[in-house]
Amino acid sequence: MITDFPTAPLDPPGPADREADLAALGGPAMIGREVRRTPFPVITKEDVLHMLLSLRQDPAKTVDAFAESYRDYVGAAFALPTASGTASLHMALVGAGVEPGDEVVVPAFTFIATAQAVVAAHAVPVFVDIDPRTYCMDPAAAAAAVTDRTRAVMPVHVHGLPADMPALRRLCDERGLALVEDASHAHSARIGDHTAGSIGDTAGQSLMADKNFPLGGEGGIAFFASAEAHARAVDYLARHGIDYRMAPIAAAFGASQLERLPYYDRVRARNAAVLGDALRQTGLFEPPHVPEGHVHAYNMYRIGLRPERIGLDDLPVHAVKQAVHELLVAEGVPAREWQNTPIPCHLPFRHRDGFGGGYPFSLNPGAVRDHRPEDFPNTLAMLESTLVLCRELRSPVEYERVLRYGEAFAKVAARPDAIRKLAAGGDCPPPHRRAARLG
Ligand SMILES: Cc1ncc(COP(=O)(O)O)c(C=O)c1O
């Protein structure tokens, strides 16, 4: 039987942990194998009861009740619960008035579903580079990509940090475009008092298992600022006979999880702050940048590398990253890449088969580009010089674990000799030269 109950307690790190040799060189791992699991979501007996009892209720009532309470939490005017995040983004685009053949500006760095939702709406994604500090859509790049056929701009709140919505709002207002949020990483993220999902004209949000607010397996929700946009999406589903409905059992789970979302958000924010302080002291590592007034939801925590600060700037940064990655994993810190090439370089956008016969790309050949990774230099630089923590910091993990992560980063940063040896010795192509990977 799989149990979430911890098999061993995690002690806070002590001086001996810091002085020990690197785990990759035979020392003890900072996080032992027996304590590496970070189960999430937490499932209480109330969650279980609520889900079981919901099976006796009118399914539509269960889903509507969840959607209404989460809509209220987000502060959006209208909501449409869906079976997945991709479906919610499709509905957000339809609600925003996107028509077949229209262009929608999307970031080159996101999950592929952002761009595939544009294709699902029979429109053409136009990819732009990211801001080098926030990793979200660069508003200047978005402005440069607007043409007469652009209908919407769809930023992604990457990893949980809201994109520069004020700048994108100005762009959309000036050019008469709809602003559509992909808020899939950004549950409870905010700019000032405005929660992600309620800032654009419409929004889509995934509620699948890897998100900060997971409804069990799959789920999503679209938000709309106007009754017209909401009606357009609802009418589209009815007219086309498309069933994108959320499963009632997922909605029931969501309703009881929602009560604890603010608690998880606070634990995540605390953990991110503690780890950020630890990383700043290492020299080599940098925590995520959060602009003033933005609240990051930390669905993922992207860590920058600054090899020049520990005398490793003669090595390619991606080689340093790969070496550090190996050393961290040996310490029990499951750091990852999460993507290794810009989204337009993945097969669906290189081949552009779409729905067959090149549709919908064939509706607007002028918007179609044969992209190379080098077309997105900020995305490439980020992929080469950063690592990500995902579930390990997303779950409400113990304070001791976060302290141990911090110590593991410090232990690795204190060994430029070991990093150099690994980085100089191995075969290490830049991330985008390897086969394209999602996640
Ligand atoms: C940024 C982003 N957008 C959209 C999606 C699509 O959501 P789903 O998998 O629920 O369809 C995801 C999901 O993983 C995502 O990370």
Question: Quick recap of the structure?
Answer:
By secondary structure, the protein is α/β, with parallel strands linked by helices.
Description:
- The chain has two domains: 15-39 and 262-339 and 381-433, Aspartate Aminotransferase, domain 1, CATH 3.90.1150; 45-259, Type I PLP-dependent aspartate aminotransferase-like (Major domain) (Aspartate Aminotransferase, domain 2), CATH 3.40.640.10.
- The protein is 39% helix and 12% strand.
- The chain has 16 helices and 13 strands.
- It has helices spanning 15-19, 45-54, 59-74, 85-95, 112-120, 139-145, 165-175, 227-240, 248-258, 261-280, 317-331, 347-351, 377-385, 391-394, 399-413, 416-425, and strands at 78-82, 103-107, 124-128, 150-153, 178-182, 190-191, 194-195, 202-206, 220-224, 285-286, 294-295, 301-305, 386-389.
- It has a seven-stranded mixed sheet with strand order 1-9-8-5-4-2-3, with helices on both faces. The protein has a three-stranded antiparallel sheet with strand order 7-6-11, with no helix packed on it.
- Helix 11 crosses helix 16 (416-425).
- The longest helix is centred in the middle third of the chain and has 20 residues, at 261-280.
- The model has no long low-confidence stretch (mean pLDDT 95).
- It binds pyridoxal-5'-phosphate.
- Pyridoxal-5'-phosphate is lined by residues 84-86, 89, 110-111, 113-114, 156, 182, 184-185, 206, 208, 218, 220.
